[in-house]
Amino acid sequence: MKTKSSNVVKIVLAIAAAAVFIFLFKYFRDYFTEERIREMLNRAGIWAPAIYILLWSILPIFFFPVLLLVVPSGYIFGSAMGVVYTLIGSAINITVMYFLAAKFARKPIVDLVERKSDDKIKKLFFSPSGTSQGVFFIFRLIPLISYNLINYVAGILKIAFLPYFLLSMVGITPGLLAFIYLGEQIHDPSSPQFKLAVFFLVLLTVVSLVLLSVYNKRHPDD
Fold it and tell me: pLDDT of 122-152, one tens digit each?
């Protein structure tokens, strides 16, 4: 009887948590537009870096588009400091999202996989060495792949945090540099600098996809 009551409580709490998450997801998406973020940082004065890092640390948890955070930083802080503040915020956020997923989502999802999935999917979840860090590194290089989703998937899968964290920081840096530089030049889209930033993003995407294709051929079991 106690076990049944405990399961009911867990289900209710899970539904409540999901409802809160969905509400915050919708609220943040509607409220924090790029224009509002830029205006907020402009008015913040000396507190702008701290507010920006705080936004970066929290908003991606609710699948907020990180592009709306990255681009204004170049316009407000310039390329150099924009990169510094963005890397600090993303380092905090990667850590928070990884351990949130590991703490609250890993066990129920792994239990579901154990009951319902085929051997290939089970190997992905239960391999002693975990999912290949190389795949996650390449995913980090691709600007179009969801930053938020990668963090949660990494926390759910049994991969070591420290290598994932370090490779993630290295992997996201080229794309961040390009997006922040793009933001710094956004007032003049016809400038050579703006076009150079766009070209670099396209090149980074193409190179990353080629690397992913080569990696998949060499490591078909990952």
Answer: 666 656 454 567 788 888 888 777 788 888 8
CB 96 within 8 A of CB 154: no
Phi, psi (degrees; rounded to nearest 5) at 158: -85, 70
Whether residue 163 contacts residue 133, with contact meaning beta carbons closer than 8 Å, is answered with yes
Which residues, other chains included, contact 117 with Cβ-Cβ below 8 Å and sequence gap of 6+?
Answer: 125
| Residue 44 in tokens | 């913040």
State the Cα–Cα distance between residues 50 and 48, nearest whole angstrom: 6
From the list 134, 171, 150, the residue with the least C-alpha distance to 98 is 150
pTM check: above 0.85: no
Does position 10 have pLDDT exceeding 70, yes or no?
A: no
DSSP-based three-state secondary structure for 129: coil
Instruction: Using alpha carbons, select from 165, 170, 166 the residue that is nearest to residue 151.
Output: 165
Summarize pLDDT for 156-168 with one digit per residue, the tens: 887 889 989 999 9
